[in-house]
Design a protein that fits this description.
The chain has helices at about 55-60, 75-80, 115-125, 195-200, 210-225; strands at about 5-15, 30-40, 45-50, 65, 90-95, 110-115, 150, 155-160, 160-165, 175-180, 185-190, 225-230, 245. With about 250 residues, it is α/β, with parallel strands linked by helices. It has a single domain (about 5-235), classed as Ribonuclease Z/Hydroxyacylglutathione hydrolase-like (Metallo-beta-lactamase, Chain A, 4-Layer Sandwich). The strands form 2 sheets. The chain has a 7-stranded mixed β-sheet with strand order 4-1-2-3-5-6-7. A 6-stranded mixed β-sheet has the order 8-9-10-11-12-13. A hairpin with an 8-residue loop joins strand 9 (about 160-165) and strand 10.
Length: about 250
């Protein structure tokens, strides 16, 4: 079986109180965290996990501390780290449809998009606490042709060495992506783990809509993965292939 190469792609930053990501631990400590996407290839397929933000000023309504340099624009960042043009990307996997993870979906016109059906439905009918983080312009029919979507109902093997597992809790239909790499299984976790401390310290992430499911999702990641690229982990470098060990 071919092994995958996975690279971290930074598409922005957010300044916030650390406790927002670690269930009140570190309250009063201001930190700046990256917004991560991931690029992955087995030498044949070109896969992008999450697509960053759509509009900086719009996203500031949900996250006032967000910033983005020109080189962190998703298209430019993918080109810089992976050497891919938007039309080269064949698969986009959204861990969930919050606007910092699906914002540039519309830039990848040749891709097939993978999402849990439950998440896609929730994104069009969000609960009150979820609503500020869903922006339909990121994933509606004008951004992504309906026939580009592949709706999933649970764990799915997409390609050899590339598997999606359900990890609800942060959102109702959240999923994480597993890649079989030469170093071991890498989990691109989206925001079920904002930082590695969530899974390794059993601490809830920012925004939780299903509490028991969060801890079940942590356990799934611990059972399956050697390393993790969380949605906003500051201890990973842009372009890196080295991620945080899962304890």
């Amino acid at each position: 079986m071919k092994k995958w190469v996975v690279k971290a792609i930074q598409v922005g930053s957010i300044e916030l109180d650390r406790s927002a990501m670690t269930h009140y631990k570190g309250k009063g400590e201001t930190v700046t965290v990256p917004i991560w996407c991931a690029g992955a290839t087995d030498g044949e397929h070109k896969v992008l996990v999450d697509t960053g933000i759509r509009d900086l000023e719009e996203y500031k309504k949900a996250e006032p501390g967000v910033s983005q340099s020109p080189q962190q624009d998703t298209v430019e960042a993918v080109r810089r780290i992976m050497g891919w043009e938007p039309e080269d990307v064949t698969i986009v996997i959204n861990t969930h449809l919050h606007c910092d993870h699906s914002g540039s979906n519309g830039k990848f016109k040749n891709a097939k998009f993978y999402i849990q059906k439950k998440e896609w439905e929730a994104a069009f009918m969000p609960l009150v606490p979820e609503a500020p983080f869903y922006d339909q312009l990121c994933y509606d029919k004008h951004a992504v042709n309906y026939f580009q979507w592949e709706f999933l109902n649970g764990d799915t093997e997409i390609l050899p060495g590339l598997r999606i597992i359900t990890t609800p809790g942060h959102t109702r239909g959240h999923q994480s992506v597993l890649f079989d790499t030469a170093k071991g299984v890498v989990c691109v976790s989206g925001d079920i783990c904002n930082v590695a401390e969530n899974v390794n310290g059993n601490l809830e992430p920012n925004i939780v809509v299903m509490v028991p499911e969060v801890y079940e999702s942590f356990q799934r990641i611990r059972q399956t993965s050697h390393f993790i690229l969380p949605g906003h982990e500051p201890e990973i470098e842009d372009g890196s292939e080295d991620f945080i060990p899962v304890i």
